[in-house]
Amino acid sequence: MRASLLQIAVDEDESVHSRRRRVASLVREQAGADLVVLPELWTTGAFAFESFEAEAEPLHGPTYELMAEAAADAGVWLHAGSIPERVPAGDGSSGGGALYNTSLVFSPDGARAAAYRKIHRFGFDKGEAVLMGAGSELVTVGLPETTLGLATCYDLRFPELFRGLVDAGAETLVVPAGWPERRRAHWTLLARARAVENQAYVLACGTAGAHAGVPQAGHSIVVDPWGEVLAEAGPGEQVLTVEFDAAKVAATREQFPALKDRLLGLETPRR
Questions:
Q1: pLDDT digits over 10-26, tens only?
Q2: Is 128 a catalytic residue?
Q3: Is 265 within a domain?
Q4: Separation of alpha carbons 10 and 8, rounded Å
Q5: Which of 52, 69, 76, 133 is deepest in the core (most CB within 10 A)?
Q6: Does 34 reside within a domain?
Q7: What CATH number is associated with residue 63?
Q8: Which domain, by its residues, includes 241?
Q9: Structural domain contains residue 62
Q10: Total domain count for the chain?
Q11: Has 153 been annotated as catalytic?
């Protein structure tokens, strides 16, 4: 498989509309790739909390339209990163009127293949944690070569989510993010840990630039099922392209069948 991670720089002087158009052009330039991945909240910036409300859009909104067209034009599977999604009040769904950090995946014909609402929201008692609702569903996407498991940024710190994705058949874990530079060491460490413990590929795509004054880590990374780094970007805007053998997941799990030794349902120790 050939995957291209688009490490987008978020510049406050560039309008959201202009950035959508620019990124759509970048996606089209990846024709020949099997999978293209964008970062988390690249339209607004992951730390631009004050912009979430103003720039939130319905699932089938302007970002959806442009990314669907770009995926079809390039003929690629596209993980279009995430958007601040607004669920219209009164639409009959749970959380009507709420905001979510929602990822979109498109097939090579431009059809929506999946949507994933971020489960673990960052900020503790402020920012995303209070402005956005929490998703509740694990999402996988079947590609011809592999099955993707979807997670977003802060999710990377919660290994039980990734175990659930593996149990659902995931072989390639895709993690768009807006990860800050000051915790870049954690970004690399956690991406490799999730790959090793789940014997899966990890494609972790971050942003460059600064979000509301918060410098971003960049350093998008692709890790194989043994924890080896196949490719890593620098700090600036960059297209990181890598070819990998999707069949290596099954081979690794057969050669070193650690997942078969999991012990579930352990009792909580008495105190």
A1: 988 999 999 999 999 99
A2: no
A3: no
A4: 6
A5: 76
A6: yes
A7: 3.60.110.10
A8: 2-256
A9: yes
A10: 1
A11: yes
Tens digits of per-residue pLDDT, 179-206? 999 999 999 999 999 999 999 999 999 9
Residue 220 predicted with pLDDT over 90: yes
Number of residues in the chain: 271
Q: What are phi and psi of 68, to 5 degrees?
A: -60, -45
DSSP one-letter string for the chain:
-EEEEEE-EE-TTS-HHHHHHHHHHHHHTTBTBSEEE--TTTTT-TT-HHHHHHH-B-TTSHHHHHHHHHHHHHT-EEEEEEEEEEPPTTSSSTTTT-EEEEEEEE-TTS-EEEEEE-SS-SSTTSTHHHHSPPP----EEE-SS-EEEE--GGGGG-HHHHHHHHHTT-SEEEEE---BGGGHHHHHHHHHHHHHHHTSEEEEE--EEEETTEEB----EEE-TTS-EEEE--SSSEEEEEE--TTHHHHHHHHS-GGGG---SPPPPP-
The confidence score (pLDDT) of residue 271 equals 64
Residue 19 pairs with which residues in a beta bridge? none
Is a pLDDT exceeding 70 seen at residue 75? yes
Which residue out of 85, 128, 153, 171 is catalytically annotated? 153
The DSSP annotation for 109-162 comes to TS-EEEEEE-SS-SSTTSTHHHHSPPP----EEE-SS-EEEE--GGGGG-HHHH
Domain assignment present for 154: yes
Rg over alpha carbons for the chain, rounded to the nearest Å, is: 18
CA-CA distance, 69 to 80, in Å (whole number)?
Answer: 12
Which of 40, 85, 128, 171 is the catalytic position?
40
- The question of whether 260 is a catalytic residue gets the answer no
